[in-house]
Write a structure and sequence with these properties.
Layout lengths: L3 E5 L5 E5 L5 H5 L14 H9 L9 H14 L3 E4 L10 E6 L4 E9 L7 H13 L4 E6 L5 H9 L4 E4 L1 H8 L4
Parallel strand pairs: 5-6, 6-7
Antiparallel strand pairs: 1-2, 3-4, 4-5
Helix pairs in contact: 4-5
Length: 175
Amino acid sequence: MSMTTMGAGRSGATTKTTEDSPMDELLFQQESEAPLFVTDINDEVKRFFARHPERLHDLAPRKFEILIADILKDLGFETQLTQATRDGGRDIYAFIRNAATSFLMFVECKKWKDNVGIEIVQRLHGTCTINNADKGMIVTTSFFTEPAKAEHKKIATKMELVDFTKFKDWLMRYK
């Protein structure tokens, strides 16, 4: 049985999904197939990935970055995507600004099947240090190698590692 739902995202645009193929056309088309650029991921899309996290591997890398930025917004950050290519080792700027503090985190998104190695951890840490970011975060659809985890232990106050398991935990809030 196919169920059709209608919803409006933050932009006010109405989206239509069916249980048989939830937003497949929007989410999983290749970037070059259409001029569509999703700039706001609504809760329906996040609910879909909470139910089907394995489908994250089917997303285009830029759409994965948009999803991460939107989830970080839900967690209280202001976010800004960097340019799609030659981003200087960071995909998202995540800010917290209030009367008491200002905090900047660089987020690197890795939609990979292979594990993320030490060189990515070291590179993001260096980028954060050189550019005065308070913290770095790597979010991946895979996992981290043992050397990457060991490197993280040295800089744990300056770096967050979010692997596929932890990312699925983030998505659980949308079920």
